[in-house]
Structure formats: C-alpha cells, structure tokens
# Entry
Amino acid sequence: MSTENASASVLSAARPNGAGAAAILAAGIGAFLMAVFAILADQSAAIKGLMIFWKPTGPLSGVTTCAIVLWIAAWAILHARWRNRSVALSRVNAVAFTLLILGLLLTFPPIADLF
Amino acid sequence: MEITARSLWALIHGMGFGALYLLAGSGALVELYRRYCTHNQALPSERDERFLRIYLVAMAALAWLAVLTGAYIIYPWYRAVPPPGTASLAAFPQRMLMASPTTSGWHSIGMEWKEHVAWIAPISITMAAAVALQYGRNLKNHPQLRAAVLVFVWTSLLAAGVAGFFGAMINKNAPVEGGPVIHIVQGEQK
# Structure
C-alpha cells in the first residue's frame, strides 16, 4: 500500500473522540480534586486527621490517595459512558482546562488560605 | 567522597526522576509541536508513533516515581519532629526552615505548594500517554484532542517545574541529611 493510500485509510477511519474526552475531563477533575482535598485537610482538623493514611507522610498520604482514587474512578465511569461515541470536545476541553487551572491555583498556599 | 543515604534518595528523587522528567517534557513538547502544530500534513510513520507512545509512557513512569519517592521516602524525613530537647535541627529540615522568619516561607509557601501541585504532573502526563496509546496516528484526525494533550503536557511541565524549583531551594536551605554514610571514592591524601 502506498503512503498516500495508507494515510487516506487512517484519516478516513477516525475513532470517536469519547475515550480521549473521558481521559481529558478526568485529568481535569483529578487536578481539581487534589486542590480541594488539600484545602479541606488544611482547614479542618477533623478531615486532616482522617487524611492520615500513613503516619510518616501525614495528611498528604490521604489527600493524594483520595484525589487519585477519585480521578481513576471518574476516568473509568466517563470512559464506560463515552468510549463508543463522539462528544462535544470543545466543551469538555473548556471544563477540563478550567478545572486544571483551578487545581494549579488552589494548591498555591496564599490562594488556598483564602478559604 | 561520601554521601548519606537520605541525600542519595533526595538526589534520586530530584535529579534522577524530577530533572529527567523536566528534560523529557521539553522534548515531548517539541515533538508534539513538530508533529501536529506545523503544516506537516504527512502521517507519522508507525515507527515514529510507537516511539512517541513509549516516550510518553516513560515520562508518566518518571513522574509517578518522582512523586511517590518524594511523598513516601523523602517527605517523612523532611517533616520528622525532633524529640524534646534536641539542640540541632540539622536532621529536621521542616523545623529548621520554620525556626527562622527568613526561611519559613520555603516551607509555608514552597513545600506546601510543591507537595500538592507536583501530583498534577503525573495525572496530566498519564492522560497524554493514554490518549497517545488509544489514538496513535488517528490523533491526526482529532485537532481538539491534540490541543488538549498539548495543554496538559505544558501544565505537567509547569507543575513539575514549580515542584523542582522549590525542591531545589528547600534542599539548599535545609537539606535532607542522615542515615548510613555511603563511601563513594577515597580522596587523595595531602
């Protein structure tokens, strides 16, 4: 098969974007949840105590574990729902980028301390 | 010439996994840009595509190794609480930083940001690697997927850069030291 034919066959067989959209939105959710759990553990002594999954690392162990477990769970759920269809990716990207930027900003202590 | 076990782990975490990740991240951005953001209409070869997949998976592995060694090996030494009556805080970096107003910001802003923002790097790059694995050359058909991958790779690099910068500065002001001493090589006698 010539290179042009190979290119044409790949280009004509576009996969639905749902699986990629699920990964993108879940990553945004994961980044945002990291900041949310960090703020919760910082602001509430009770939650801080609950977040100590491994004493030497302290609340960071629970904050990161919870965020990662929920990120993977969100990814699995979204993937199961979207993998065989195409979704409005511009909207998904907009939400994911917003969550990602919020995640970056809300982990910055002077901003996190506003809550 | 010798090094303590804790210093060696800090080196593996920061210079080994962290710095290598930053280097790899800049390479990934160049490759993704060259492949998808230029006017190059040709599909990448299967060999090129396989290389990019392996590259992104290796980056994801580096990012996870960096945050896991940081959180579960280095950080417990960093935040260790000195027993009452301890005269020297040299083995307790967090307390050492917080003991002086000129260095406390390295903990209250630097470490407090680094310990959380660093995790955005593996989350972002894992997503990028997963999309590359799932779509391969078909990414050429999905400009918005490619845009998202680029944004997340940029962000992972930013998050890793913040973590790397503060890690280096914190270790400069209050190095993680202690543990068994490893003799690397015998120096010349004067």
